[in-house]
Design a protein that fits this description.
binds zinc ion, Alpha-Beta Plaits, alpha+beta, 4 domains, 6-stranded mixed sheet, 4-stranded antiparallel sheet
Length: 516
């Protein structure tokens, strides 16, 4: 008898996302993929997804095996579980974390459904997925509750040691300690060695890479001092300038395929599933090759790419161009043959002092709640998290045309405004003045020509005399993208669109607006 099996390892978000440093985030994503591959490589059967050649193994994989009895399936799955568990405990040994601190961390869930031939495959596939979902609601083992102080980083396990960090006063549990210690403890013969051998930048270094490059900051003390406002005076004395406000911000990017579940469920044979896996592999391979992710050429860092999921950390000025490039690769490698799927993206612009785990959570939220739900998928959503004041959002579908400039998409309008802001001085009062337009624009029955006149006036006075009419149309489109309801009433005027564009623009001119 043939069985279709789905196997999953959890928790994922809790393991990866609870990171204080970018390095913890990156390391945990690589550990999870390493553990999944320890299980995936132990499979004695036909791999359905991901494909056997896949470089990055997701936490859930599907395969089929031959077995005479159910008992055989069970023992095969226990063997796979054991391979993962052994790989995990080996990481504990490498970092000298006692096994008893971490041995019940992972939950392994699986479901298996017998099927005779390809005709029964589609039904078996849908059944096995539903079974897994039901099983996950009732985990097989409950983690033993740990007594003592809770780890401040994950908030979940109890503290193991209290002497981490530069000041030797950071408390970490066993699981968080593995993530923190592994890159330095791993030995050359381990397959994770090459992945962790590079020094991993902090979000501060990514945000301030231009400042660091301009003044040639190389010593560790100076790089460290970028993290403390109190040390900015020293930098100012030495270089004549401390980092600008904008240089304190960076971007997180999350992208994932839309309607992937439907696409997967539509497939009727293992080979069709395998075909989709291979397309996704080829997409991921291309994403890895993007120039900015090459450490010699750019300052962006890919945290993970696998299946239809991407997560990366980027300097502001590359953020939307990289999102665009990834979308184009997805169109070329996946959508070309699978036209029912699209890809959505979330970019969160955050201050380098903002707790990383919150920015990570926010990025997932913006992807799910704004790009997918509010904008309706196939969309880009950008959130600016200002240090003071609330969040500002801008979102639209990639293909949405600018209502004030029908020959251009809103995305291209954003690119053009970003360029215009890079080349000219934008006064800080523009955002304020645009906000003042709200009442005028809200007048019942106002015509779009009248709105454009208002924008032209502001653009001429702030962005510059060049291309006033074009830039006014672009800006009006961005600020009013979600503005009118079906009755034609103004419900959402978003002057913050220009603040977001400004943050994404290159600063060529030191005299530019200092954000408040
Ligand atoms: Zn912890």
């Amino acid at each position: 008898m043939r069985y279709l099996v789905v196997f999953s390892i959890t928790p994922v978000q809790a393991f990866i996302g609870r990171a204080r440093k970018l390095r913890d985030f990156y390391v945990s994503s690589k550990i999870l993929s390493y553990l999944a591959s320890a299980g995936f490589n132990a499979v004695n059967g036909k791999k359905v997804y991901p494909s056997a050649q896949s470089k990055s193994i997701p936490n859930k994989f599907v395969f089929s095996i031959e077995a005479d009895k159910e008992e055989q399936v069970k023992s095969e799955l226990e063997r796979i579980e054991q391979s993962i568990q052994n790989a995990w405990l080996e990481l504990a040994d490498i970092t000298n974390v006692p096994r008893c601190r971490v041995n019940d961390y992972w939950n392994y869930s699986w479901a298996a459904v017998p099927y005779k031939d390809e005709k029964e495959y589609k039904q078996a596939h849908s059944k096995v997925q539903k079974l897994l979902a039901a099983i996950k609601l009732k985990p097989r083992k409950i983690r033993k509750s740990q007594t003592g102080k809770k780890c401040p980083l994950c908030g979940e396990n109890s503290v193991w040691r209290e002497d981490f960090g530069a000041n030797k006063d950071e408390k970490l549990c066993g699981v968080c300690a593995i993530k923190r210690l592994l890159p330095e403890k791993i030995t050359k013969n381990h397959q994770l060695y090459s992945i962790f051998s590079d020094k991993y930048p902090s979000v501060t270094e990514i945000a301030m890479h231009r400042y660091i490059g301009k003044y040639g900051l190389i010593n560790e003390y100076e790089i460290e001092s970028l993290q403390e406002e109190t040390k900015y005076n020293e930098l100012k004395n030495k270089y004549g300038k401390s980092p600008s406000n904008k240089e304190k911000y960076y971007a997180l990017l999350a992208m994932d395929g839309d309607k992937m579940g439907d696409l997967v469920n539509k497939k009727t044979t293992p080979d069709e599933h395998l075909g989709l896996s291979q397309k996704l592999d080829s997409f991921n391979g291309e994403v890895e090759k993007i120039d900015c992710f090459d450490k010699r050429k750019g300052n962006a860092k890919l945290i993970y790419t696998g299946g239809d999921d991407i997560f990366a950390v980027l300097p502001l000025e590359n953020a939307i161009s990289i999102a665009k490039e990834i979308r184009e690769l997805y169109m070329k490698k996946v959508v070309k043959d699978e036209p029912t799927t699209t890809i959505s993206a979330a970019i969160v612009i955050a201050h380098h002092k903002e707790p990383l785990r919150e920015v990570i959570q926010d990025t997932h939220r913006v992807l799910d709640k704004i790009a997918k739900e509010k904008a309706g998928r196939d969309a880009l959503a950008i959130r600016l998290k200002k240090r003071s004041g609330g969040d500002r959002d801008l979102f639209f579908q990639w293909k949405a045309t600018n209502p004030f400039k029908p020959d251009e998409t809103l995305f291209d309008s954003l690119l053009k405004i970003k360029e215009a802001l890079s080349e000219s001085a934008l006064t800080s009062s523009l955002i304020y003045r645009l906000a003042q337009l709200k009442d005028a624009i809200g007048v019942q029955g106002i015509k779009s020509e009248q709105i454009l006149k208002l924008f032209e006036y502001e653009v001429a006075h702030s962005i510059g005399e060049e291309n006033v009419k074009e830039n006014a149309k672009r800006l009006a489109g961005l600020c009013l993208a979600q503005a009118f309801n079906q009755q034609g009433e103004l419900k959402e005027f978003n002057p913050e669109a220009v603040a977001i564009a400004h943050f994404l623009a290159n600063d060529n001119d030191d005299k530019k607006m200092e954000d408040k």
